[in-house]
């Protein structure tokens, strides 16, 4: 089966610094990846996605990098703000769309 | 994207009672799911809510404990039956939407925070 691993369960950064959250996956057949942000008391919120035919995709202050060779994803947040404090997930989709496998997430804490 | 609402947003219930959680989506969706997120844990898929037929449950979850209804393509309910403190969790409704580029993207509702005393 698939496994999802986030390299660090917690990450603490200073406000204004850049953050990098990493994720590894095991299923080489995965072709679509999404990063979610879950703030306290809320459901997971879609941040950014990337297909396997790309190795980089940029959004507003966020960039996702995909390395298919080593099955590794990273989410980069530029100029991290207190509002970025949340748990970040990179679930790996199973064969049926939507039935994603969620790992434990990385808790990002932004210090003022 | 999709706008997903859930009712109630939170509840505190007594052991042995049941609670029905509602999920409403602002557009017709084929695929709808229910997840559970226990305190400090990740999301666990409970079942797929199928329109017009019985829900498909994941290993460890059964219909008698978590009956699900899906009367149409915009609405579903999840009932947590005969509750115990171990059922205290956030329950999340989720849908999959076909986005541009023929990609299926998964979205989540705000969750229902259940506390069982």
Can you describe this structure in just a few lines?
The complex is a heterodimer of chains A (112) and B (117). Chain A is mostly beta strands and 112 residues long. Chain A has strands at 4-6, 10-14, 19-25, 32-38, 45-51, 56-58, 62-67, 72-77, 86-89, 92-93, 100-101, 106-111.
Question: Which structural traits does this protein have?
Answer:
heterodimer, A: 112 residues, mainly beta, five-stranded antiparallel beta sheet, five-stranded mixed beta sheet, globular, B: 117 residues, seven-stranded mixed beta sheet, four-stranded antiparallel beta sheet, 11 strands
Description:
The complex is a heterodimer of chains A (112) and B (117). Chain A is globular. Chain A has strands at residues 4-6, 10-14, 19-25, 32-38, 45-51, 56-58, 62-67, 72-77, 86-89, 92-93, 100-101, 106-111. Chain A is mainly beta and 112 residues long. Chain A has no helices and twelve strands. Chain B is an all-beta fold. In chain B, a hairpin with a 6-residue loop joins strand 5 (43-49) and strand 6 (56-57). The model of chain B has no long low-confidence stretch (mean pLDDT 93). Chain B is globular. The chains are: A mainly beta (112), B mainly beta (117). At the A-B interface, strand 4 and strand 5 of A face strand 5, strand 9 and strand 10 of B.
Q: Estimate what percentage of residues of chain B fall within beta strands.
A: over 45%
* Secondary-structure content class of chain A: mainly beta
Note the overall shape of chain B: globular
What's the number of extended β-strand segments of chain A? 12
Most strands sheet of chain B: 7 strands, mixed
Structural class label of chain B: mainly beta
Overall helicity of chain A = under 10%
Q: Tell me the Rg of chain A in angstroms.
A: 13 Å
C-alpha termini separation of chain B = 36 Å
Largest sheet of chain A: 5 strands, antiparallel
Summed up, the helix count of chain B is: 0
What low-confidence regions of chain B span 5 or more consecutive residues with pLDDT below 50?
none
Low-confidence sequence ranges of chain A: 1-5
Total E-strand runs of chain B: 11
